[in-house]
Amino acid sequence: MNAYLIPILIVLGILLLIFFYASFVRSYANSITTWFAIKKLDINKPLEDYARLLLDEHGLQDVQVKKVGFFASMFIGNTYKVSSKTIRISWFAARHSSVTTLAQVCRMVGLAKMHSDGVKGLKTVEFNRYFGWLPVLLLPLIIIGLILDLIFMESIGLYSIIFTCIGLAITIFSFIISMIALKRELRAYTIGEEIITAMGILNDEETKKIGKLYSAWKRLVVINAIFNAFEVIYFILKLILQILSSAIKRG
């Protein structure tokens, strides 16, 4: 085995382990969501009404609440928009007022409260919600580079390196944003848990369950940040390997 491949294979193995662990945590969070659905806790108001009530209780009367439509929900649902001070509740969440959707609303109220308290960098949380998928572009960019290398045989490896660099720049940018957003997101979940617990609508068992749900959500945020970090390391190693291979071929 080529010695240069060993670090890449190690990082790939770590990425695989992170992926499986993330899948487990996501399944665990889904099981708690199902538990609450079976419990049929009485949530007798629309989510936007709960959001308005909670905002007013925390002195955030200047924050708006907006329910977005079906298609918009796929892109901008369940977010706090910093520039317009607006909590946007997705069509999917608004249709089912449940404990778990209320927990998400409490998280957004937490973001609004942080904004009111002057916490900086909250736009990175919003950016992550919209553009967290950007690293997905890396693979198509690498494929485009390989195709161009095949078309222009006189520059073997050049286009692969160029497009890999572009993809790597996007991945690094996304990683930096996710790291800045990480602390804010974790804090928002903590505030959200405090808010829903203080509402007094949960019994002791339900309070423990909601705590575990918030814990799972926090772990997923951390896992995504770690995953992005190892993605960056992997593609840097791969780019170095490409450059070395190209240099050897040209030599």
Structure description:
It contains nine helices and three strands; from the N terminus they run H-H-E-H-E-E-H-H-H-H-H-H. The protein has helices at 5-39, 47-57, 70-76, 91-95, 99-116, 123-131, 138-151, 158-198, 204-250, and strands at 64-67, 79-81, 86-89. A hairpin with a 4-residue loop joins strand 2 (79-81) and strand 3.
- Identify the quaternary structure here: single chain
The dominant shape is: elongated
Element-by-element helix/strand order: HHEHEEHHHHHH
Biggest sheet, strands in spatial order? 1-3-2
Q: What fraction, in percent, of the residue positions are helical?
A: over 70%
CA-based gyration radius: 22 Å
Low-pLDDT stretches are none
Structural class designation = mainly alpha
User: What is the terminal separation in angstroms?
Assistant: 22 Å
Largest sheet: 3 strands, mixed
Mean of the pLDDT scores? Answer: 85
Got a strand count? 3
Q: Which percent band covers the strand fraction?
A: under 5%
Provide a count of the helices: 9
Write the layout of secondary structure elements.
Elements: H1 5-39, H2 47-57, E1 64-67, H3 70-76, E2 79-81, E3 86-89, H4 91-95, H5 99-116, H6 123-131, H7 138-151, H8 158-198, H9 204-250
Parallel strand pairs: 1-3
Antiparallel strand pairs: 2-3
